[in-house]
Amino acid sequence: MKLRLLVGLAATLLIGVLALLGRQVPLEPRPPAQRPTLALLTSLPLMFGESFGLASGGSPALTALEQRYNVQPIGVADAPSLAGQKLLLMAHPRAQPAQALVELDRWVRDGGRLLLLADPKLDWDSGRPLGDRFRPPPDFADTGLLAHWGITLSGPVEGSSAGRLAAKKCGIAGQGLIARCRIGKGAVTVVADADFLNVQPSAEPKDGDLGLLVDELGRLESL
What we know:
The chain has one domain: Rossmann fold, CATH 3.40.50. It is built from six helices and nine strands, in the order αβαβαβαβαβββββα. It has helices at residues 2-21, 60-66, 79-82, 98-109, 145-148, 207-222, and strands at residues 37-42, 70-73, 87-91, 113-117, 151-154, 164-167, 171-173, 178-183, 186-191. The strands form two sheets. Strands 2-1-3-4-9-8-7 form a seven-stranded mixed sheet. The chain has a two-stranded antiparallel ribbon with strand order 5-6. Helix 2 (60-66) runs parallel beside helix 6 (207-222). The termini are far apart. The model is unreliable at 1-13 and 15-25 (pLDDT under 50).
């Protein structure tokens, strides 16, 4: 119970920080015919619940995304999966193969837009045992990509599960919570947290909970 309270307080703090960084007015839903494709690569149970059943799928985060995007899940950030894609959300992804990282880097430099949620300490309840390949990893598996882009991730920050980012050639906001970088012809935004996506289906999501995720994607679209 105490852990849940701390996590809740940390999430509330994060939402407050994001609210200061985002637009005051949330982006409006788009008509279905006007929704661009958003590639989604994640280890989190956003598309489906942990049981992979239809009854447990459709998280509030997915609902928020689908109001503006045609969400297309991918299994790996390699060239075939990214071909034709313009916008990619990597929400606490699993470690990617070395060749996929090379191809992801090329995709960004050629003009791709990436929002990466890299949580150094994921506080997300799971019914699956430790070591289960379907359980989200406890921390972001950085295999050198961030360093290649000149970004460092540390943390978690004391009193929170979120981390801190630093980069010489990127814009840093939220006291290190967010790094916004131009890389080649493309752009990358890194957020050192993913727990703010963990909105319970029974709860009524606030604009600050998930709307700012969509807002940041909209910012990347506009670059």
